[in-house]
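Reviewer 2 asked us to include a model.

Predict the structure of this chain.
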Amino acid sequence: MAGVGNAWAQWRGWMARRAEAAAAAAPEPVVHVPEPPQPVAPPPTVPPQATPVVPAVPAVRTETPPYPARPAHPADAVPWTLRVAAEGMWRLLLVGAGIWVLLQIVGTLRIVALAFVAALLISALLQPTVSWLRRHGVPRGLATALTFLAGLLGIALVAWFVVWQVNTHLNEVTSQVNNGIRQIKNWLETGPMHLTDTQINQFSGELTKVIGTNSDQITSFGFSTVGVVVEIVTGVFLAAFCTFFLLYDGERIWGWCLRLLPVRSRISAAGAGPRAWTTLTAYVRGTVLVAFIDSVSIGIGIYLLGVPLATPIAVIIFLGAFVPLVGALFTGTIAVLIGLVTHGPVTALLVLAVLLGVQQIEGHLLQPLILGRAVRVHPLAVILAVACGSIIGGIGGAVVAVPLVAVTNTVVGYLRARHAVDEDVRAALTAASAGE
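Predicted model (structure tokens):
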């Protein structure tokens, strides 16, 4: 135990000496005493002096602009206007291709297409009568049947009247035509041409020879004429069938057509459809009234001039007046030819003057007054539509072209107005949500 106590005392002495050596080797701490702040003198006050205004001299660029780098993509090198034109052009070509395909389908099914369009026009004319009968308590089926039968009876009476007038005056017209042909022959002999009987007979022989040579073609034309008659009869029955069901179930058919459209398009189509039907109804009723006035006026004029078959010609003019601005004039040329053959050139010129006068009254008074604002189509658009319709679909295309343009104009105007209203509502909602 004495050894352990000595060892412990030695270790403590060694630790004490080591601590004293470390304290002696450490530097003494330096205490920094802050100096008092020295007063700072304010800067001397210098009176302000007016700074002379030196005019700015524009900088002169001496360096040349760098050459534009090659675009990363070839499309970036195409001018913007050309790119916009190309974007619009291929879309126009696509729309044109779609229209061409549609016209090919319509041309293939021309009988069905023309019959359905004729049914639409007749239905637009007869629908107000059906609505009037239904408002007065007549059931829908009975009102439709009465209106339909009345329309068929009216068409049948007009056709019978035309045939009766033609048969009544046919012998008179034939004799007058023969007399006119003799007058033309005398004019060829005594007039400025001074043809002889031999030359006239030779011309008649050549004409007979041509007819005999082309007898096969004439026979084939006869067969094709029979085919045309069959097509006309088929189209008439199909148009009558479609007319009856459009009058009876027109609203249900329109609802079914709406269900075929996408959901987002149904509201716009539901608003555009009644407006298109209103335009079509106004056009058909106005055209019928204008055609009646034209036919009566021209019929009275040619009757006073002594032209035979005035009543049948007036009926033909009534049918031709369904082609606006030009229909009555073209069908009225029949009266001009009959007046030329039966009464001479003076009567023919007077008949032509009557036609032109009635056409001027129609274009400047009847069309704006009767049709009014319901069908707003420019006369240039009417002429172009009739020309395009006649080229594409013949007489039927010429009749259908103008109402198609009128309905399209109404639908496009309604959709544009609706789009503008939708944009205003969307902008108002956006502004309201931003203000919150």
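The CA atoms of residues 36 and 42 lie 19 Å apart. The chain is about 80% helix and 0% strand. We have added this to the supplementary material.
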